[in-house]
Amino acid sequence: MKNLNKIAIVTDSSSDVPHELLRGLPVSVVPMYIGYKDELKRDGFEITTAEVFDALRKGFKVNTSAPSAGDFYKIFQSLFDEGFEYIFCIILSSRLSGTINAASIAKLSLGDSRISIIDSKTSTICLGFTVLQAARAAAAGKSVEEVSALIDELIEKNRFIAILENFEYVLKGGRAAFLSKILSIALKFIPILTIGKNGKVHLKKFAKNLDAAFREIYNFAVLEAKKNKKSKIGIFYGEDSTIASKLEKLFRQNKEINIDELIVTTITTVISAHTGPGLWGIAVSPSY
User: Fold this and answer.
1) CA angle (127, 129, 133) in 5-degree steps
2) Helix, strand, or coil here: 163?
3) Tell me, which fold does domain 159-286 have in CATH?
4) Tens digit of pLDDT for each residue in 165-189?
């Protein structure tokens, strides 16, 4: 088993990992794009979530697009030029974006087999935990085989659940078209969404109000965390941090689950453009 100390991790900007946690780790983030007022801006660099929410409220059309194959090509080439010997590129679910296609084209163009393009089958900090743990394993000197096995296990066991206060923006973006089939119900209740093992967004159930939805996603996350010896918990939100803070407090007080890392983060602009401001969710990841 060859141990390559020079393993790099590449991901896209939907991964939601706070920048301070990536310092010192071999992670490169390729920004996605926000189309706004006839300009294309880089997610996380040139536009904020506050600007996106303001645009949505004013009725402006906000589009998102995947990084280009050229964006990935430049990153891959620069990493090899820096002396990295293998790259794991872990990408937003292929059921939610065409980003993985751009990364795959870049790999083909480069003609280098030392790149693995991986569909995370998830999004936000749930993807972020896979990136973070893979990068920490690479930095610790784990082999390509060991890092690959870790990524596979995390993709299999990571769990995601979220609340949408207003489904209007998701419908416009076409990311949860199934809601349009149950429009009359969705107008009255709060949809609770999960991402299935196939990487597609699914409706788990409806809640009568935000408080009930809040309890539902917390209980779901606790049950999932109990399956792990140790868990990482990610709490993500759009604009209002109140529910996120309540969730954080509950998790920190819960003595029935073993949490070794808890992250509270806002969603990136590329996610916010599709969900609008009323999003709260939890990611549960086994900790290794």
Assistant:
1) 125
2) strand
3) Hypothetical Protein Tm841; Chain: A;domain 3 (3.30.1180)
4) 876 776 665 555 555 555 555 557 8
Residues paired with residue 9 on neighbouring β-strands, in sequence order? 27, 88
Looking at the chain, list the stretches that DSSP marks H as alpha helix, in order from N- to C-terminal side: 19-22, 49-57, 69-81, 99-110, 124-139, 144-157, 168-173, 183-186, 210-225, 242-253, 269-275
Q: Enter the DSSP assignment of 259.
A: E
User: Which pLDDT tens digit goes with each residue over 207-261?
Assistant: 999 999 999 999 999 999 999 999 999 999 999 999 999 999 999 999 999 999 9
Fold of 7-32+67-156: Rossmann fold (3.40.50)
* Interatomic CA distance for residues 204 and 167, integer angstroms: 14
For tokens 């795959």, name the residue: 104
Domain ranges of the chain: 7-32+67-156, 159-286
Of the candidates 107, 135, 99, 102, which has an alpha carbon nearest to the alpha carbon of residue 19? 135
Cβ-contact 281, 232 below 8 angstroms: no
Tell whether pTM > 0.85. Answer: yes
Sequence-ordered list of residues with C-beta below 8 angstroms from that of 260, at least 6 positions apart, any chain: 230, 231, 232, 287
